[in-house]
Amino acid sequence: MVFNAPYFSIVIPTYNRANKLKQAIDSVLSQTFTDFEVLVMDDGSIDNTSELISSFNDSRIVYSWEKNYGGPSRPRNRGINSAKGEWICFLDSDDYWKVSKLKKCFDHLHGEVDLLYHDLVFSRDGLTEKKK
Question: Looking at 3-7, 44-48, 106-110, 122-126, which range is the least confident one?
């Protein structure tokens, strides 16, 4: 049996953010480009993060819990080490993506590309601000 690796591995480090994590995961699952895995790397949450992950019925979601380290670097590195995709993407658990993000990234990943970055939009209390 041949296993085809996903094109993108999306690493989501999290700690006690179940209230925001759902929006982050929903934004990935809503992508127009669907060849991905979602690696939720939990840094010791004691809220209902594991129950939230269990509520998703999608085999592309992988959940890993480890004792709290105190920052997102260790969970990000665990995600990198677990990733099976050709490309690794990072999404913080309190952020979300527009539905075309992965497709737009895919369209630019041809030739001699090692890293891709783009603008982002900050949104707080109904105000938005674009950052480069």
Answer: 122-126
Tokens coding 14: 């999290």
Asked if residue 92 belongs to a domain, the reply is yes
Q: How far apart are CA 80 and CA 32, in angstroms?
A: 23
Write out the residue range of the structural domain in which residue 84 sits.
8-131
Distance separating alpha carbons of residues 13 and 73, to the nearest angstrom: 8
Query: Is 3 within a domain?
Result: no
What separation, in Å, do the N-terminal and C-terminal C-alpha atoms of the chain show? Answer: 44
Q: Is residue 1 part of a domain?
A: no
* C-alpha span between 105 and 65 (Å, rounded): 29
Condensed to tens digits (0 to 9), the pLDDT of residues 60-98 reads: 999 999 999 888 899 999 999 999 999 999 999 999 999
- Sign of the Cα torsion 95, 110, 2, 76 reads negative
Q: How many domains does the chain have?
A: 1
Question: Which CATH number belongs to the domain containing residue 111 in this structure?
Answer: 3.90.550.10
92: phi then psi, degrees, rounded to nearest 5? -70, 150
